[in-house]
Amino acid sequence: MQLNKRTLKIAGIVVAAVLVILIALPLFININSFRPKIESELTSALGRPVTLGEMSLSLFSGKVGVENVSIADDPAFSQSPFITMKSLEVGVEVMPLIFSRQLNITGIELEEPQITLLKASNGTWNFSSIGGANKNKPPEPAESGGSQNLSIAKLEIKDGKLSVGKVNSTAKPQVYDKLNAEISNFSLASQFPFELTVNLPGGGDAKLTGKVGPVNPQDSAKTPFGASVKVKGLDLAASGFVDPGSGIAGSVDLEGTLNSNGSQAKAAGVITCEKLELSPKGSPAPKAVTVKYAIDEDLDRQAGTITQGDIAIGKSVARLTGGFQTQGETQVMNLKLSAPNMSVDELEAMLPALGVVLPSGSKLSGGTLSADLAISGSLNNLVIAGPVRMSNTKLAGFDMGSKLGALSVFSGKASSNPDTTVQNASSNVRIAPDMTRADAINVTIPSLGVVTGAGTISPNGALDFSMIADLQTNRSEARAERTGLGGDRGGVAFRIQGTSSNPSFVADVGSLAGNAAKGAIQRSVSEKTGDKTGGILPKRRPR
């Protein structure tokens, strides 16, 4: 019993002595004495000046704390720091530190880092030159403990902020906050896993998980990686990814993959767009648009190809393919959109997004639309051109007959009908920021006839169309009246003005006058020649 008490007493003294030693050791180990060496090693490894603030040591937790850390940027990009952070906590192996003054890192935790990424016009990033001081050096052997052998069991970033911009650009940089990342088994010489979450500019968040490495010693930007990507609630208008003047807006979710070997990148996945807007005059579309995409990009040429771009609106699918090229601060597109036999009912829901306003109280119903369009130009100045065809549809709630009947030249024509049925309609369209133009318009309306023409729609929605109506009727009095105006030989000319929501139909006086004069001449000739048809029938050739 006495032995046990004595043993416990000795054990207590030993424990107390160890505690005293552990408490006192930081007083004898001046961790700040390591600072010049650490700064030198990091500066050498990164090829950039590294500055460390006050350092502290906790033997109980085996951690070294560093305040006010700064890593300089590539001077070719900026004189401001590349990274600053409030504090840096480094996990170390205690025993080698105590007995051999050797600093072995087990983990690094970055608190509130501020990271600035800049891209030059030639596609080079400011982090491409990290490690630049060592690029021309031969690889160091494993026993030398060189920077290529740096290995960290765990690297964490907490509550960081990432700013992404372009050199000498007037555009505001995109800012990502709440950046949190965890990297396991970090090594410059091998692949390592990572997980990253971040809040997106303007709203929404993203999560990436995958593997990176080995780090390219010649250009860090060419380091291979593979990741799965999930984006929720990206606000297109506020994100900075599109030109605010383009009118593109909406909320985007994305789920896909992104892989790169350093020179070639491949992306694939599905994008879902809610409340999409595609025009400065547009309003949110009531239906979601889904895009299944696959993209190959040449990172060196800053050019890529869309190999799959299936755009689904309900059950209707259009296919977008083609190429893109970065030029300066913008992307230049050269794309093709093929949209065969798409449901008009599905597309009608997208008209608000395009800024297309139908006549008040009307609605497109039934039928199909087909289009083969070329899309070219920069993102903020796209031109869309090509043929568009529509079949067997109805503009419900719009009486074309009454609109035309309001013109005196159409008196005696047309019964009233609350809807306008379109058997076929076709046109060559050109949609550009400065104007929308429609040529070779040809519309067959069974209750009226065939309407042809061309015209424009201004950016503010004003209509200016010159049209000719070849009306089909057996009513002799109306036929005779139009014949007197030259209507049945060349059709009756009229103009469509106003706006798409409130179009007005006005007689084309100049064309009508010309046709009337032509008709009068024909009647005069007929009277002299005895032609009782009013010049409608061709004259017989003399034998």
Structural overview:
It is a single chain. Helix content is 18%, strand content 47%. With 543 residues, the chain is α+β, with helices and mostly antiparallel strands. The chain is elongated. The N and C termini lie far apart (151 Å). Mean pLDDT is 80; it is low at 17-25, 139-148, 474-489 and 532-543.
- Count of distinct strands: 25
User: Tell me, what's the shape?
Assistant: elongated
pLDDT < 50 runs, ≥5 residues: 17-25, 139-148, 474-489, 532-543
The span between the termini is: 151 Å
Main sheet attributes: strand count, strand direction, barrel closure: 25 strands, mixed
What value does the Rg take, in angstroms? 37 Å
The helical percent reads 10-25%
State which percent range the strand residues make up.
Answer: over 45%
The number of helical runs is 10
Average pLDDT taken over every residue? 80
Structural class: alpha+beta
Oligomeric nature of the chains = single chain
Q: Care to give the gist of this entry?
A:
With 543 residues, this protein is an alpha+beta fold. The chain is 18% helix and 47% strand.
Please describe the structure with a list of short key phrases separated by commas or semicolons.
25 strands, alpha+beta, elongated, 25-stranded mixed sheet
List the helices and strands and how they pair.
Layout: H1 2-28, H2 35-46, E1 50-51, E2 55-58, E3 63-72, E4 81-92, H3 94-100, E5 105-119, E6 151-166, E7 174-187, E8 192-199, E9 205-212, E10 225-235, H4 236-239, E11 248-260, E12 264-278, E13 289-298, E14 303-313, E15 316-327, E16 330-343, H5 344-348, H6 351-354, E17 363-365, E18 368-378, E19 383-396, H7 400-405, E20 420-431, E21 436-445, E22 449-457, E23 463-471, H8 476-484, H9 487-490, E24 492-499, E25 502-507, H10 509-529
Parallel strand pairs: 5-6
Antiparallel strand pairs: 1-3, 2-3, 3-4, 4-5, 6-7, 7-8, 8-9, 9-10, 10-11, 11-12, 12-13, 13-14, 14-15, 15-16, 16-18, 17-19, 18-19, 19-20, 20-21, 21-22, 22-23, 23-24, 24-25
